[in-house]
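dumping these here so i dont lose them again. two proteins, back to back, each one seq then structure tokens. dont judge the mess
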Amino acid sequence: MGFLSPLFLLGLLAAAIPVAIHLIKREDPPKLLFGSLRFLKQTSKKLILFQKVQQWLLLLLRSLLICLVVLAFARPLLYQGSLAQLVDAEPESVVILLDTSLSMQFGDRFERAIEQAQDVLDGLSSGDEVAVVTFAAGTQDTRELSSDLDSQRQFIEELEGPGYERVRFYPPLQLADDMLARQAIHDQRRVVLISDFQADGLSDDVQGWRLAPGVAFQGIDVGDERSSNLTLTDVRAPMQVMETTDNYEVLARVRSTGSVFQPRANLTLRMNGEVVGQEAVDLGDRSEAVITFPFELEDSGSYRGELRLSDDDFDVDNRWYFTMNVLPPMRVLVINGAPSSDWFDDEAHWFVLALEGMENSPFAVTTTTPSDLSADMLASSDAVVVLNLDTLPAAFVDDMSDFVRQGGAVWFAPGDRVRADAFSRSFAELSPATLQAPNVLGEAEYQLIADMDRRHPALSGLNVDWTARFQGFWQVTPSDEAEVLMRFDSGAPMVMERSLGDGHTVLLTTSLDLGWSNFPLQGLYVPFVHEMLRYLIQPPQQQGAWQIGDRIVLDESMLDARRVSGEELVLTQSDGQQVRIDSQSPYYTASMPGFVEGPDNRTLAVNIEPAAAQLNRVAVATVNDRILNPETTPRASEQVRSAQLIADLEHPQRLWWWILMVAALMLILEAWIANRTYR
């Protein structure tokens, strides 16, 4: 038996009231002095005992009457189990989704989320089952459905805290729906989403998707109604620049992302830890502003850049990291095979003019003739350009071959003075093709550039119409290792490339002066020469910054030595934690903002996604309307459902009614006895 209103049982204390009154009003018989007792009637002892019995019975009836009334108001109920089991007669399966995205680091949101999750667990009974899923951009830690509530409570208590990812609501909701469909053992099913309900979480709306029919949804909002925040949403910094550049420039976009507009802040630029610029940010009446940082760097090398906002309550999104390589001038050795005192006819004039005929040229050019060549010239160069020359000393050619294999580059441009057989014998190990014979067209005839590999790094920026006219070129036979980059409209190769060791060689089948074409007079001549030499000399441009969640393919130079030795690659994150990368699977998934240090002073810069710091929110009702299945009947509250279950069980028993009937009969009996009891 149980009682539906057990607090009324405190009324049983009132049963002591008749006893107290009886004891208080009990008096000793008075003593009277009489002169003679012969006129008093003698009373029987049996009559006195009977009257005492009547008084005790009356006292018992009155106390029992109070107890019956109290029991009636306490509403007794006959039930085989406990009352707690009665209230939880409909067990349910619950999946708790706990937001651990970046915005949950704001204030004490995550602590409140933990408290709310514990409250949900406290509201469940031993017959229920619950699962816990933490999520951000995707699901993270998952605890399957279990009736072990204590274990789930411990799991929540041991969560480390939110990370740095943006939030997405649909993946965890779909997982919860699938878990309930596959694993739930109860008909009552519910998904509880605990989050600050960042509006960006619905940006990847899955059209038409809703929870399964019958699955209830409960959203618990732990966000702040008012929040003030400034965010660095975008930074444009050069990834690779030349040392000869006078001024560098970084552009930063700052946006107010909270519900309360914040118009001002300070922005500082640091390079290798030193402050190189500081600007005041004043948004005025705008939601965002672009700040320009001009700065100078003295030496070449790799630099770590950091932009930092101040005067903001949310520091996580106030920093932006990037890396920048400042390269020394590209050293080009030009071997002029046909020098001339007349600059117009000099083979190297137009080529050198294209490299040095501009302010702050990125090239340092050394021009020489075959007779003046030295090994020191080759050692101090990044690329060698051989103009209208068919032979060089064998020892120097061997040095050139080693030079290319170690990462250098050689560009051949044979002209009208080249002998095919001599060129092929001297440069057979280097040239991408074998020269056959020159093809010089008539005065009114010419060839145009008809085809080019527009995806090649040296040519991708030159995707325009070429108007240069070529009247002479060499017919060639490309080697098996060669790749044709450009062709004339006759189909004959114009530019070919060959890889040799770590370096490259290039063959241009025509001249780079005015001997066989008007190319040096065309607007594309300078860009063509510059882009080809940049490709041959400079390392591939490396990305300056990544974002949280990016899968970074590590640089081959980090891995080559370790692939031979079988060692693991070790990266050190900004918090000092080391991450070991298998050299056979050279990928690193960015998980923390800051600089990630690799071997040989290589650095990866990682930033948060700007969308992750947007603090504008969406109403819980909006999420509910989007995902709740219209076939799901609105579920009554636990109190309403419990009251209905109790009413269904209590109505056929009506114990309180029978108790009141007995109490009424006892009240009549008490009145009848009271009227016949001596007072």
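---- next one ----
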Amino acid sequence: MATSRNRKPRRAGSYVRISEDPSGEEKGVGRQKEDVEELAQRLGWRVGNVYEENDTSAYKRKRIRVADGRSVWRVERPGFRQMLRDYEDGVIDGIIVYDLDRLARQPRDLEDLIDLVDHFKRPVAGVTGSLDLMTENGKAMARVLVAMANKSSADTARRVARAKVQGAREGTALPTTRAFGWQDDHVTLEPREAELLRKVIADFTAGETWSGITAAIIDSGMPTVKGGRWRLKSVQQMILSPRVAGIMPYRGKVSSMAAADEPDSSGIETAADDDQGNEQQQAHSPRDLALRDAEGAYVRGAWEPVVTVQQWEDLITEYERRREGAEFTSQGTRSYLLSGLLRCARPREDGTPCNARMIGATVGSRSGRLKTPKTIYRCPGKVSGGCGNSQRGMAGMDKLIEDLLFLHLERNRPAEGDAQPEAEPEHPDEARLADVRKRLSLMRVGMREGSVSPESFFAVVPGLEVQEKKLVASLGKARRAQTDRAARLRTPEEVRADWEHATIPGRRELLGQYLQAIIVHPAQVKGRGVFDHTTIEPVWKPLPQ
């Protein structure tokens, strides 16, 4: 039902908002409430509901997934949206705010309110007197003022972002909140937390799972920075962040210092600090989150690193290897040593081997009235792609493969002097990548200074960026191969020491360095308690030359 413009609201809604309130004392919105109440008394309005949004931006937009699966970018202001719903439903019969720029800084938000005012004719008033949505002139002026406020916010965002870029370039920018591993000055390491980070980074590189690392952090009893619960996702972000190696990340988004002179001023939030003060990772690889200068070198921060750059590189190499899923790793299984490594060789009806991955399982066998659990490796049933007709006792199989592993290592013991491989020569793609990045830098600088035309820039740069991406991927594979080669040149004694102290995931990782698969042929000798080891055929990876 429409409301006469001359009628004074009896249950007006009061809207107050302030963009930033670091102290959380709500003094800004408190002052606005006082001014709004004073205006309401002068106008003879009665204020009912108060819609308060403290420390809330009316400019920054976030990506929101709508019902049909598409994405839209909207300002998230629950109080503002509730006020519009109440206005439409008649819960409030007018709106009173401090000023137009408190009400809206995105034209879309203003238009939503104007649509409602056009239909329901319920008044909207502002303390500063700059708000009149009941007339065409007033609406036109409101649109102009919101457009100007929007530009002002964009200018501010650009200046702030530019200052962050400068701080990142100089390596002096610090996290806004204390990150786990560092003290309150954001620079000095907190010894116990830093030691825990080093341990779990080493454990993951050695084969431990994300779940195991998260459990280890929880078991340590160390709280999160903000006192919340440890979660696997936040642990991943914390450990994979370039920050642990003293490398500067920038707002958690893919960026390079050569291209960072034009920071984003769209008002779209792309990242935020999580509970541990670490950047959200939106890149395909954590390496993409590490800032580089125009020459391609990492930009170092002012804080103390937890691990070396090489240790962080090894961590990321292991992370990428698991994510690619090309080889047997500890990923995805926790309880059984050989799940996924054993391959069933029982012939199918057409004579071809089954070749399904055998998995660990616990089954029950009845002895009298007692049910005794038994652990086995078995081929999955036909509905899961296997034959369902092969199984082996787990204890005997695990011991056999352990013995075969160390027999293999002893027979192929590195010759004297080979245990420490010589430094690999520089990969040819290193020089190619440096050249591509140098050309990219020249194009970007030329574009900024006006010596390169936009036509030339957009004709050349996309191709160079594609080359850069391919070269980075090629070098990543080369680094992974080098790391794997170095690991397999260790002596049997070194591997045995790691094996004795490793968890199941760690032992699976060690097996994955030497074994491609273990073929399980049909048993030739049958009987209770008999283990036919002659039907087990390990397939070893070629040893490095």
